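Assess this today:

___
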Amino acid sequence: MSNRNYNVFFNTHTVSGIVISVVLYIIFFAGAFALFKDEIGIWEEGKKSTYTNRKDIDYDKLLTTLNKDYDLSGRDVQIDLGKHEDKIYVYLLASQDSTATEKSKTAQFFSLDIHTEERKEYHEYYGIGEFLYRLHFFHQIPVIGIYLAGFVAIFFLFAIITGVIVHWKKIVSNFYAFNPKIALKRVWTDAHTALGIIGLPFQFIFAVTGAYFCLSVLVLLPANFLYNGDQTKLLEDIRPERKTYVWKEKTKEKLPLFNDFIQKSDTFWNEFEFTSAFIRNYGGTNMKYVLQGELKDSERFVGLGRVIFDMETGFIKADKNPEELNYIEDTQRALTRLHFGDFGGVFMKILYFVLALITCFVILSGVLIWVEARNKKSMTLSQRLFTANIGHIYLSICLSMLPVTAISFLFIKLFGARFTNSQSAIYYFYFILWILMILFMGFKRDNYKTNKISLLLGGVTGILIPIVNGIVSKQWIWTSFQEHQYDILTIDMLWLSIGIISLLAYTKINEKVKAQSSFTKNPIDYKAAQLQLQEEEKLHQSKEQTIDKNFIAMRTKIIILWLTMVIGFIIHHVYGIANVYFQESLVLEGADGEIPGWAHQWRIILEGMAFLFAILTVEFAQKWFKWTSLIWAVLLGLFNIYHWITAMIYEMSNVSEILILFLMVVANIFLIKEILYWKSNKNVAIK
C-alpha cells in the first residue's frame, strides 16, 4: 500500500472513530447490560420466580377477566409469552367494532401475572434493565434517537473496515508483542489492535445488525418501490403474524376455547416452544387465533413456526413450518438472534457481555492513542488544549457510566418499590447523577484521577450490590443457588465479578503508569494557559502580518445563510396553499376566522428569529453574540433535521417538500460551520 493510501485510511479511521467514540461507548456499555434485561427485571423484584410451561397457562380464564375489564369485542389482542417468569405482556388495540363500548376504544399495554392476575402498566414495571436496553439505542431521545444509533452503527462499520486495513500488517506482531510495561502510547496502540482483532467478528455483527434494526425504515425504502407503495402488503410479508383483518360483525356463536387451540397446536412439531399469541377481531365472525414460536436451540438455530385458527372455516392450519426456511422471516430472526445473543443460554450472554466490554476498552484506547499522540511540543498550545479537553470530556462521560450504573442498581433495589412511576424515578436519578459525575470528573482535568475514581466507585458499589440484594430481598448468593433462582444469581455474580475486577484494576494503576503519559512528560499549565495563549496569538500575528480581508465577507456569508433559512421557512409555509388547489376543504378544522396564537409563535420562532439574527450580525461581533448565534443555529438545525426525518417517515409522497427540508438542513449545517469559524477567528478585532 502506498503511503498516500495508508494516510488516507489512517486519517479516515481516526476521524470516524473519534467522532462516534462517545456515542458508540454508550451503545456498547448499555447494550452489555441490556443482554440481561429479563434477568435484571427478576432481580429487581427480588421474589422467587417460577416458570409455567406456556401451553399449561389457563388463557381462557385470563381472557374472560380481561374481557370483563376492558371489553375485548372488536379488539386485536397481542400477547408476549415471555421466557423467564410467570408474567406475560398484553397489548390491546382499540376496537374496530363501531357498536363497542367506550372503554374498548382505548389501547392498553400492561404486564399480567398468570397466577394472581396482577396487572402493571409500562411505567410501573419499568426497571433499570429496560432503561439500559432503551439507552443502548437512545430511545430516550424522541424520534431521532434510534436513527442516531443507526448512523453511528454505519460509521462504526466504516471504522472497523479502515482499522483492519490500517493495522493489517501489524495485527499478528502487535498481538504477540503486547507489553504493558512499555511507553503508554505503545501500550494503548498494541491493546487497541490486539483486543480489536479479538472482538472483530462480534463488532462486525453488531455494526451490521445494529444498522439494520435502527435504520430499518431506510432498508424498507427500496422494498416499498417493489410493492408499488403498498406498505400494508409489504409489512404483511415481513411480519405475517401481525397481519390484521377488517372487522365484519359480532358473532352470535360461542367463542372457541383458546386453551383447546394451544393444546392442538402443541401436537404439530416436537421440541417447539410458543413465544407469542395473537387474537384478531376478538368476538367477531372472522376472528382468528395465531400462535407463534420456534424450535429449541438444540434443534435449530432459526426455526420459526406459526399456527392459525380461522373461526370462519373452523380449521387449524400450520401457516409456517419451523423446519422449512422462509427467506424474509428467517433472515430477520437470524439477525435478531445474532444481535441479542438469545441462543446458547446464559453462557452465550456472558460471552457477549465480555466482548461488549472489550469493545468499550477498544473505543477508549483509540481515544487515548489520539490524545497521547497529539500532545507534542511541536503543536501549538491551543491545539494541545483542544485535544486535552476532548480527552477529559470523552473519558468523564464514558468512565462515569460504570459507577452511575452500579449506584442506580443500588437505588432501585433500596427505593424502587416506593415509586408508582418507576420510569420517571430512574430517568431523573440516572441522568442527574450522570451529569454530576461528568461535571465533577471533567473539571478535574486529570484522566488518571478520572480512571481511578470510576474504578474505585464502580468496584465498591459493584461488590455492595449482591450484599444489599441479600439484605433487602433475602436472596443471598448461596440462597439463590440453593433455590435455583439462577436469574437473580446471574446478576449478583455479574456485579460481584465487575466489582472485584474493577478494584484489582484500581490497584494496578499507580503513579508509575501516570509517569509514562505524555501529559506528565509535557504537561499543560492550565492556570497560566490563558496568558500563554495570548502570547502565542501575538507571536502568530507578528509572523503573519495579514490584513483582515475575510471578516466582512464571512459575516456577509452568515447573514446570507440566516436569510436563506427565512426564505426556506416561507417556502415551506407556502406548501399549505397546495390544499387550495388539490383538496376540497379550504379551511382547517376548528378555524374561526382568526389566525391562532400558536401560528404567530411558530412564525416568530422560525422566520422571525432567523431574520433578527441576520440583522444583528450586521452590527454585533461580540463573543456573547457569537455564542448566542451558535446556540440558536444548533437548536434550529436539530429542529430542521427532526422535521426532515418525520417528513421522510410520514409524508413520503410529498417529494418536493422533503427536498426543501433537506436543503434547509444543508444550509443550517453551513450556517453552523461559518459561525464556528467566526467565533474561533482570533485575528478579527471586535467592533
Remarks:
- The chain is about 65% helix and 5% strand.
